[in-house]
Structure formats: structure tokens, C-alpha cells
């Protein structure tokens, strides 16, 4: 690692002040991506601002039809939460499928979505459920939050504080693991809510996306059978040593049917 100044603020205001005064600062949440990057000397921030000491960024609550999860809530807390299980069981399942126990006990919701790895699980849940990302400056619909490969709508110095999920009528997540990393080779989050079906695909492309073909078919009948013969295009999907674009497109169809069947 390169040398840096470490800060452990206790409030968002303190964190913002440190950020504004530093030469080249970087926020750190669970550190599951940033720490390896620092160890490989691929980044050299002047200041590292740890968000782990800010209690206002943690916690899980259910208010009516909205489930809210703080940005610094780790995956293991979501996986073990009776509140989440009561409101959106699919989120419990998704959190249980992330990485291994070490990753789940350090990685955070806010860190995951801010990093926006194309194979991460949470972006699928946010887009699939029509969630809202709350930041230190504004509220951003999930459909507008994820903008590209490792890119989001966050401005410089803007911090995710929490995510609010509308409780759906039905929802489920189906994932095909990349065996070594346990990231999603492809993952599909399907949900049915008052405004109709939503299907989000992660791992297949440079960024999470909604599968309009699947949503249109499910609008007629929210069942796995409704997706028979329905496919997404391989154009623009990822091809790498793990899978071709065509294979990922096929997997998306298989997993969409599994997710919808599980939700039903």
C-alpha cells in the first residue's frame, strides 16, 4: 500500500468535512473491494475515511409497506434479520448467497451498490424491487442509480446513507454462481408489485438491467410458464473466460423462470 491518513468520523458531517479538506480522499465501507485495490497499489488516496463508526448509517426497519436498510448494514445482518424475512424473504436469500462468511460479515449494502460491480447481487435487488437510494444529498430511484460498468449516479463526495425497498406482493432471486468468487455469473431478481412485474438481471452485462421481454410476458401471467420461449438478446452482454454472451443470455432465461416459480 501507499501511505495515507486514516480517519474514523462519528457523523456524516464530520466525514464530509474531512473529505472537503483532503487532497485526494476516499470513503471506505466494508473494504471488500477497496482494500485489495490498495494492497495491489492500484490506488493511492491521500486520506481514507472509514464510515464504519457512523451509527446513523446502520440498521433495518419496516414502516408500513417500506423496508429500509442502512448503508453500513452488513450482508450477514440482512441474512439473519427477522424483519427482512417478514417483509421481503427474497432479500434474505440474496444476502445468504453473497460470497462467504467473511465477506458477508464485512461487506455492506452501501459499499456494494456504490462500487457497482457488474456481477454483484444487490443491484439486481434494488432494480428488481424499484428501490430508492438515499444519499447525503438526495434520493435516487434505483433505475437511475446504476449507470455503467463500476459507475453510479453518485457525485464526488456523495455518500449512500440508506436504501428503501417497497414491499412487493411476490419476489425471488435466482443465481448461477461463478464457483471461485461466488459472484453472479448471472443473477435474476423477479418481483410482482402494484405497478406490475419487474425483472432485473445482474452479472450478464456491464451493468444491471431490466429485462423488458420477461416483464412483458409476465404482465399477462406471473408464472414460470409465461416465460417459455421468451429470451433476451446476447447483444452487449459480457463474454469472458467463464461464459460467452450467448450462454449468459440463455442462463438469464433459465434463472428468470426459476425466480418467478419460486416467487409464486
3D structure, described in words:
- The protein is α+β, with helices and mostly antiparallel strands and 264 residues long.
- It folds into two domains: 5-50, 2-Layer Sandwich (Uridine Diphospho-n-acetylenolpyruvylglucosamine Reductase, domain 2); 58-263, 2-Layer Sandwich (Uridine Diphospho-n-acetylenolpyruvylglucosamine Reductase, domain 3), CATH 3.30.465.
- It has eleven helices and 14 strands.
- The chain has helices at residues 12-21, 34-39, 75-80, 82-87, 89-96, 101-106, 109-115, 122-129, 142-145, 212-220, 245-263, and strands at residues 5-7, 25-28, 47-50, 60-63, 66-70, 132-135, 139-141, 146-148, 151-152, 160-166, 170-177, 184-193, 196-202, 209-210.
- The longest helix is centred in the C-terminal third of the chain and has 19 residues, at 245-263.
- The termini are far apart.
- The model has no long low-confidence stretch (mean pLDDT 96).
What would CATH call the architecture of the largest domain? 2-Layer Sandwich
Mean pLDDT: 96
Largest sheet: 5 strands, antiparallel
CATH class (first level) name of the largest domain = Alpha Beta
Features:
Uridine Diphospho-n-acetylenolpyruvylglucosamine Reductase, domain 3, 2 domains, globular, 34% helix, 4-stranded antiparallel sheet, alpha+beta, 5-stranded antiparallel sheet, Uridine Diphospho-n-acetylenolpyruvylglucosamine Reductase, domain 2, 264 residues
Give the SSE layout.
Elements: E1 5-7, H1 12-21, E2 25-28, H2 34-39, E3 47-50, E4 60-63, E5 66-70, H3 75-80, H4 82-87, H5 89-96, H6 101-106, H7 109-115, H8 122-129, E6 132-135, E7 139-141, H9 142-145, E8 146-148, E9 151-152, E10 160-166, E11 170-177, E12 184-193, E13 196-202, E14 209-210, H10 212-220, H11 245-263
Parallel strand pairs: 1-3, 2-3
Antiparallel strand pairs: 4-5, 5-10, 6-7, 6-10, 8-9, 11-12, 12-13, 13-14
